[in-house]
Write a structure and sequence with these properties.
The protein contains eleven helices and 19 strands. By secondary structure, it is an alpha+beta fold.
Length: 433
C-alpha cells in the first residue's frame, strides 16, 4: 500500500507552502527520514523528510507550486510494489492542455503542433511564476532548458536564461502562431542581456516568504507602539577575552566562539530582573512567560529568518554557544524544523555584522521587545581609572538598541534593562567554558 506524502504544517499560522525542489524523482528509492523535497513558507525554508521507506511512486505537485497544508503532494510505494506505472505523473499537464484547445480550433491543421508545444511549455514544464517572468521578458519557454524534475523549468532557470541575454526575437520566430499576434513589436527591445532583478524598471514578483514578511512588518508597526533607546557599551574586555580563548574554546568544545552568546547571556541576566521585557500582550492582559525563548535573527542569501533558542534561561554559556551555532548552521542549510521558528519571547538581531553602527529594528510579534546589536569598532573613549583620573584611550565599542512596545513597557524600565545589559557586558566575569 502506498504512503501519501503531504505538505506539512509548518507552524500554527502557516496555511500553505511552496515546493521549491524535489530531491528525488519517480522510481527512486528513498529511506524513511531521508530528505525528499524542499519547501518555502513565510517562516522557513526547509527540507522535508520522507515519511516512509520505499520507492517514490508519484509526484502530484510540481516544483514551484503552492498548496495548502496537508495536501497530498506525492506517494511512496513499498519496496515490493511496482512504481513504474505512476512514475511519469502526466496528470498536472492535462487540464491546461484542454484549456488551450479552443485557441487552436480556428487555425488550420498545420499550426496545431506548435500550439500544443507551446501549451506544454507553458504548463507542464513551468510554474505560474516562471510563466509570468517569461511573459514580462518576452521569452519563449521552448528555448529554456529546465533543470527541474523531468526537465521542468525552475525560477532560477528562467532568470539564468534572461541573464545570459537570450532574446525574444528568435523565440517569436519559432512559434509565430503563439506569440506574434499578441505582441508583434515587443520582442525587438529585448536584444541586450537582462541581469536578473538588476535592470532599472524591472518588475520582479515577490516570493511568498517576502510577501508575508512585508505584511507582518507592517502589522507589527500598526500593533505595537514602537520606541527605541540606544546604549554605548565598552566591549574591550570581551573582545580581548574572545581573542585569547577562541582557539582553545573550539578545541575543547568543538564549536566556534562568537560574540552572540555574550549578548544573549547579558540579556538573560537583565530579563530576570525585568520580566516585563519578556512578556506579551494578550488582549487587555499581560502574559508573563515562564521561560526565555530567544529569537536570534539569521541573515540568509534569500531572506532574514529568526530561529528560536528555547529555554535559553536554563543554559550556561557553552550551552548558549552550541545552541546558537546549531540554529545558524541549520538555518543556512535549510534544516530547520517548524518548531525551530516558533515561540520566541524576546528577539536579538545583529545588523552590525554588515557594518551598521546601530539599527532600529521592528518588534517580532508577539514579542514586546527586540535588541539590536551594532558593529564592534575601535574608537576613542574617555576612561576613568581607580583613582578617578580621566584619560582618552582606544576602546572596542558596540552600540546596542532596544526596540520596545510602549503599550507594555515604560521608558524607565527599558532604560534600566539596557543599563543592566551594559553593566553585565562591561564587567564580564562569567566563565565561558
Amino acid at each position: 500500500m502506498a504512503t501519501d506524502v503531504i505538505m506539512p504544517q509548518m507552524g500554527e499560522s502557516i496555511v500553505e507552502g511552496t515546493i521549491t525542489k524535489w530531491l528525488k524523482k519517480p522510481g527512486d528509492k528513498v529511506q524513511r527520514d531521508e530528505p525528499l523535497f524542499e519547501i518555502s513558507t513565510d517562516k522557513v525554508d526547509a527540507e522535508i523528510p520522507s515519511p516512509a521507506s520505499g520507492v517514490l511512486q508519484e509526484i502530484k505537485v510540481a516544483e514551484g507550486a503552492t498548496v495548502g497544508v496537508n495536501t497530498v503532494v506525492g506517494s511512496i510505494a513499498a519496496d515490493g510494489e511496482a512504481a513504474a506505472p505512476k512514475a511519469s505523473a502526466p496528470a498536472p499537464a492535462a487540464p491546461p492542455k484542454k484549456e488551450a484547445a479552443p485557441a487552436a480550433v480556428p487555425q488550420t491543421s498545420a499550426p496545431a503542433p506548435a500550439a500544443t508545444a507551446s501549451d506544454e511549455d507553458e504548463h507542464a514544464r513551468s510554474s505560474p511564476l516562471v510563466r509570468k517572468i517569461a511573459r514580462e521578458h518576452n521569452v519563449n519557454l521552448a528555448q529554456v532548458s529546465g533543470s527541474g524534475l523531468g526537465g521542468r523549468i525552475t525560477k532560477q532557470d528562467i532568470l539564468d536564461f534572461i541573464d545570459k541575454g537570450q532574446s525574444a526575437p528568435s523565440a517569436a520566430a519559432t512559434a509565430p502562431s503563439a506569440t506574434a499576434p499578441s505582441k508583434p513589436a515587443a520582442s525587438a527591445p529585448t536584444t541586450r542581456p537582462i541581469p536578473a532583478a538588476t535592470i532599472p524598471g524591472d518588475l520582479v514578483p515577490m516570493t511568498n516568504m517576502r510577501k508575508i514578511i512585508a505584511q507582518r512588518m507592517v502589522e507589527s508597526r500598526r500593533t505595537s507602539a514602537h520606541v527605541h533607546c540606544m546604549y554605548e557599551v565598552d566591549f574591550t574586555n570581551i573582545v580581548r577575552l574572545r581573542a585569547k580563548n577562541k582557539s582553545s574554546f573550539e578545541q575543547r568544545n568543538g564549536v566556534r566562539l562568537t560574540f552572540m552568546p555574550f549578548f544573549v547571556r547579558a540579556a538573560l541576566i537583565a530579563l530576570q530582573q525585568f520580566p516585563i521585557i519578556n512578556a506579551s500582550t494578550e488582549g487587555d492582559s499581560i502574559r508573563y512567560h515562564r521561560h526565555v525563548n530567544v529569537g536570534i535573527a539569521v541573515a540568509l542569501d534569500w531572506v532574514l529568518i529568526v530561529p528560536v533558542l528555547k529555554h535559553a534561561d536554563d543554559l550556561n554559556f557553552l550551552g548558549l554557544q552550541r545552541g546558537i551555532s546549531d540554529l545558524g548552521e541549520r538555518a543556512r542549510g535549510k534544516k530547520l524544523k517548524p518548531e525551530d521558528v516558533e515561540g520566541s519571547t524576546f528577539t536579538i538581531t545583529n545588523p552590525g555584522q554588515f557594518g551598521a553602527v546601530f539599527g532600529l529594528p521592528i518588534i517580532n510579534q508577539p514579542n514586546s521587545a527586540i535588541m539590536g546589536v551594532g558593529g564592534i569598532m575601535k574608537m576613542p573613549m574617555v576612561v576613568t581609572d581607580a583613582d578617578g583620573n580621566d584619560s582618552i584611550a582606544i576602546r572596542s565599542v558596540v552600540h546596542l538598541t532596544l526596540g520596545y512596545d510602549h503599550r507594555l513597557i515604560d521608558g524607565a524600565v527599558a532604560d534600566q534593562f539596557m543599563e543592566l545589559v551594559k553593566k553585565s557586558l562591561e564587567g564580564w566575569s562569567e566563565e565561558i567554558g
